[in-house]
């Protein structure tokens, strides 16, 4: 469970610490108040891509830390990182794009942080909607539901061995001239990839560093110009100090001016502090141009390699392995063709056997998932809903067996089942995604929903709130919502506000008590008066939610 999160200099947040609770934690606030910034900060500390453009103006770096307790780890993560039930995460990103990551006080890479973070929290936002529209993701979701990890891994290993044997068998049948041609080609391609000396996570690191390096000169000049405007002779700081002194003298005569005098003195001090911070900031921008040139050159080199062997770096690494296998097959092509063919046939039967085992598991899981999805989402305003996890066979098994999966959906009577990408209603896909999340959550202890209530209202919104509350009985749920009917189910209600402070925009988050909850829900309905019908309706919503 996420116990607390501390955020510093992140977007519009100066310095904010949030205590979270078990059950349903609801974030509300006016449109544009910054509700999703807290979720972005949490995503950042869990290993999502960082953007130095989110560093609060005037700061040198942004920092986020998060504390978890009672963590139950997947076995592979627990063994790989030797983690216990208490976890403290810290991540910072400076203007040069440099990340600092600590897990329980020890230095880690962003890539490791991301792997750990994915085991801790399940995020759901608009991106997840898009993933659900992609039928290529459906087989993975079905396998996760069926807990096919072990059988999948076995099938992938058998398939890899099948590919190696097939390459050897194909090589043994080639002419000497063709072998020589392919040896030259594969050797050249493999050398080109190896000479690039690619590293996991390198591309992301370059993309994070480049923006601040590219504009270092412009930023430094702007910072110097600001310092001149603020602190040169006769400039803002000097004038503010003189004005503060005059007002202080006046306040000694007229006590009614004391508060104004203090406020002006604080403004003068703030201007001086900002100037000092800008001087420090400008000094951090003394960057060797060669560093930028090297990064740009490296980025271009990676881009060319990806264009030839990609489109992604992961594809390039897979290509390297493939080329090594092909070269090995060609260099050892003198093996007996008959022996190879027998071994290949045996491996093909093993692959088919593994794939049939997967298919059997998937068919059972698809039937059960289809039934459970209907049962889960029917109470969300779908009286005639149908859902089917459909399986289609491939001609020959691949690394994931010989099945293709696609989720089909129909919300209304008389309407045929259709692929999810053909669902036009945002409200329908939001409710379907919620139902799937409930069923596919697995052992993850904390779930986050950012605007899960898109496209819904009225009684349907109340049903979604009830579903979230049900989900939160066995795990921690964080939800950003704009609907009063959903907010009423909160175990902990947090209101996000945007305000001006000394000429700057900032964000605060306030945990609400019972009466304040009712007032906030009334505001969401459209009323700000505690004596209004809207306030009474808010109290009724809270009472209904408590009795649900």
Keywords summarizing the entry:
548 residues, alpha/beta, Rossmann fold, six-stranded antiparallel beta sheet, 19 helices, flat
Write a compact overview of the structure shown:
The chain has 548 residues and is of the alpha/beta class. It has helices at 35-45, 75-81, 110-120, 126-133, 138-146, 149-172, 176-195, 202-214, 216-231, 236-253, 258-284, 289-309, 313-331, 337-377, 426-440, 458-471, 484-487, 514-525, 533-547, and strands spanning 2-10, 13-19, 24-28, 61-68, 87-94, 99-103, 106-107, 121-124, 386-398, 401-410, 418-419, 446-450, 476-480, 492-501, 504-511.
Would you write up a description of this structure?
A six-stranded antiparallel beta sheet has the order 2-1-4-5-6-7, covered by helices on one side. The protein has a six-stranded mixed beta sheet with strand order 8-12-13-3-14-15. The mean pLDDT is 87. With 548 residues, it is an alpha/beta fold. The protein has helices at residues 35-45, 75-81, 110-120, 126-133, 138-146, 149-172, 176-195, 202-214, 216-231, 236-253, 258-284, 289-309, 313-331, 337-377, 426-440, 458-471, 484-487, 514-525, 533-547; strands at 2-10, 13-19, 24-28, 61-68, 87-94, 99-103, 106-107, 121-124, 386-398, 401-410, 418-419, 446-450, 476-480, 492-501, 504-511. Among the domains are: 1-124 and 451-548, Rossmann fold (3-Layer(aba) Sandwich); 175-332, no CATH class. The longest helix has 41 residues, at 337-377. It contains 19 helices and 15 strands. Strand 6 (99-103) and strand 7 (106-107) form a beta hairpin.
